[in-house]
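User: tokens in, sequence out, please.
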């Protein structure tokens, strides 16, 4: 099932709903309705009219097949995609932990270090946004990243159990201030370089595979139509379960997200380097199960605003 958080057009500004994406239509799923689903992510005790996306993520896999069919059939019809603006499916309090390692030219080895680079919610724009890069920096690039969404609390889990805690996937356009990142590389954190306000993007939807073992297929990133990156989760040195297990040491909560991309490619980064971006570029990140995350790079904005 594909789920989107949408802001309705023509109605009260700022009112959001959870919706199921069915082909070319968004179908209202009112039983998971909240006036602000992204703020309601932490209300996960039950699936109710007050529930949020995390309630859906936690409970979807626990429903039997007949219940899922009933919910899907009940939800069909009623809300055209033209009537809604899709917003980034990210909880207010969620942590986005980007998996990174030193981007060596040679293949990674068993003792290679992996670090979690934190991205704030404020770093993300909505799908289909025009991103304005601050003029505080002049070297920008982007990676295509798969966001694995945590659907239930995870604390000190092994890799198999941590894998079971992942219930959905989305796409991330991970934009980096490369000059600042090179300065911060001494500490391996990339905190400031990856958190300029609204320069990355996330979405457009959350894919909830019915098979818990399923994972997204090949991800491709094009800049102005030119293929710049392509990979699958099988190409990465660490699995989703490996990283979720490692980072569950500090507890992962519903709505948290683990970003997996070219920075942890098994064969080294040279086969899939970050793509430089400038004003006017169009970034398209596509995956068959999730769709296409598309953003445009606008003119640089004054960093003092």
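Assistant: Sequence out:
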């Amino acid at each position: 099932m594909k789920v989107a958080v949408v802001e309705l057009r023509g109605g009260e500004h700022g009112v959001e709903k959870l919706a199921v994406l069915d082909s070319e239509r968004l179908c209202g799923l009112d039983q998971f309705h909240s006036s602000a689903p992204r703020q309601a992510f932490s209300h996960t005790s039950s699936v109710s009219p007050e529930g949020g996306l995390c309630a859906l993520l936690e409970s979807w896999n626990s429903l039997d097949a007949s219940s899922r069919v009933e919910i899907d059939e009940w939800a069909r019809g009623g809300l055209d995609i033209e009537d809604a603006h899709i917003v980034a499916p990210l909880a207010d309090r969620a942590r986005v932990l980007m998996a990174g390692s030193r981007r060596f030219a040679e293949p990674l080895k068993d003792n290679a270090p992996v670090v979690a680079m934190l991205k704030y919610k404020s770093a993300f724009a909505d799908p289909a946004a025009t991103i304005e890069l601050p003029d505080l920096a002049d070297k920008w690039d982007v990676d295509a990243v798969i966001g694995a969404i945590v659907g239930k609390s995870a604390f000190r889990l092994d890799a198999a159990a941590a894998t079971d805690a992942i219930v959905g996937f989305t796409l991330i356009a991970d934009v980096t201030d490369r000059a600042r990142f090179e300065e911060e590389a001494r500490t391996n954190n990339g905190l400031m370089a990856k958190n300029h306000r609204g320069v990355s993007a996330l979405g457009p939807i959350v894919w909830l595979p019915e098979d818990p073992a399923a994972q997204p297929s090949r991800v491709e990133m094009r800049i102005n139509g030119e293929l710049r990156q392509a990979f699958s989760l099988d190409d990465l040195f660490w699995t989703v379960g490996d990283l979720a297990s490692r980072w569950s040491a500090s507890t992962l909560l519903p709505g948290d997200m683990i970003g997996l991309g070219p920075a942890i490619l098994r064969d080294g980064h040279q086969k899939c380097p970050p793509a430089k971006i400038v004003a006017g570029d169009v970034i398209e990140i596509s995956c068959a199960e999730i769709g296409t995350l598309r953003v445009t790079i606008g003119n640089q904005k004054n960093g003092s605003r």
